[in-house]
Amino acid sequence: MLDNISLFVQSTGYVNLEFGQLFMILISLVLLYLAVVKKYEPLLLVPISFGMLLVNLPLGDLMAEPQNGQIGGLLYYLYYGIKLGIYPPLIFMGVGAWTDFGPMIAQPKTALLGAAAQFGIFATIFGALALGFSPAEAGAVGIIGGADGPTAIFAASRLAPHLMGPIAVAAYSYMALVPIIQPPIMRLFTTHEERKVKMEQLRHVNKKEKIIFPIAVTLLGGLLVPTALPLLGSLMFGNLMREVGVVDRLLKTTQNALMNIVTLFLGLTVGATASAEAFLNAQTIGIIVLGLVAFGFGTATGVIFGKIMHRVTGGKVNPLIGAAGVSAVPMAARVVQKVGQEENPSNHLLMHAMGPNFAGVIGSAIAAGALIAILG
């Protein structure tokens, strides 16, 4: 009887819990707190933090690979959607189905702000190379600067699958922390008078323009960077379904059921890659730091280019909208609106910021495709 009790005790997680696992469990609880209490991207952080919690509970083996005829863990099989690059394009399809590219079409020059914000990706690549990462690994780490979780996952799956866990967690964590990270950078590079600038109302964009846009972007972007087509093509197909107005059933499924299911699986499996063994090492810490640098640099270059546009247009552009050039949709645009209204309560920058925000989504997908083609 005592032997049986002893065997049971030895089989519990309480006895087998190690310090690294406990530390990661505490991190998962902090992320869960940010999601639930602070409401920082809860649709992402709740499944990510819980997946992190699950994988660090000892003896659960939810990410265990199949061995000796035994089946693997539940999350191991769900992880194939990330490993094979399936979830990110499906997420992009859902994003496209929800997106109105009207603000970007109405003010095409703001697309340059989305392009400028991608400099964070390429600047961080050099930092990663200096820290000893291989060119392919550096490319995968640099994509975090685009502030686009699906793009970061897709690029990592092609360039550095072994770094998928820390890259994915870093990318989604920084996306969720946009309201904390961006405002200080935005204020640092702009003056009070610049932040007060009110922009003119955008012109009306007709239905024909909105239908032509996703087709044109697919053709131009797909021919320029074919490796970006899984992301870019999915994004534009989702948007085309929205604009044509004849596939409502497909559109609603993409916007709701499909998007929710994929987000759920992606979040859980991203979190499940953050085991203590894979996460608590110098390389991972380097990725987390470089990811923050990439995101901060992308925000800064977007704002700086916004200042240039402000001067070129004779003060008609509020440089704050450049911060939305990172592709954290729509959080970055909301942050621009918030900071702008703090300086001028009558200021309404949201729709103006959505242009560079959407351009950032397209830009990060093209940048990822280019890096995959060059470094993959």
Number of domains: 1
Helicity level, as a percent range?
Answer: over 70%
Shape: globular
Spans where pLDDT lies below 50 across 5 or more residues:
none
Characterize the quaternary organization of these chains. Answer: single chain
Largest sheet: none
What's the pLDDT, averaged over the residues?
Answer: 89
Count up the helices.
22
Strand % is under 5%
> Distance between the terminal alpha carbons, to the nearest Å?
59 Å
The beta-strand count equals 0
**What is the string of helix and strand elements?**
HHHHHHHHHHHHHHHHHHHHHH
Mind telling me the C-alpha Rg? 22 Å
Keywords: Cell membrane, Ion transport, Lyase, Membrane, Sodium, Sodium transport, Translocase, Transmembrane, Transmembrane helix, Transport
Pfam family, one: OAD_beta
GO molecular function, one term: oxaloacetate decarboxylase activity
Protein name: Sodium ion-translocating decarboxylase, beta subunit
Give an overview of the whole structure.
The protein has 22 helices and no strands. Helix 7 crosses helix 18. The model has no long low-confidence stretch (mean pLDDT 89). Helix content is 72%, strand content 0%. The termini are far apart. The chain is globular and about 85 Å long. The protein has one domain. It is an all-alpha fold.
Task: Give a concise summary.
Helix content is 72%, strand content 0%. It has 376 residues and is mainly α. It has one domain (73-375).
Protein topology:
Elements: H1 2-10, H2 13-16, H3 19-36, H4 42-55, H5 74-78, H6 80-83, H7 87-98, H8 102-106, H9 111-116, H10 119-130, H11 135-142, H12 149-159, H13 164-176, H14 178-188, H15 192-195, H16 207-224, H17 229-244, H18 248-272, H19 276-279, H20 282-312, H21 331-343, H22 350-375
Helix pairs in contact: 3-4, 4-13, 4-18, 7-12, 7-17, 7-18, 10-11, 10-20, 11-12, 11-22, 12-13, 12-22, 13-20, 14-20, 14-21, 16-17, 17-22, 21-22
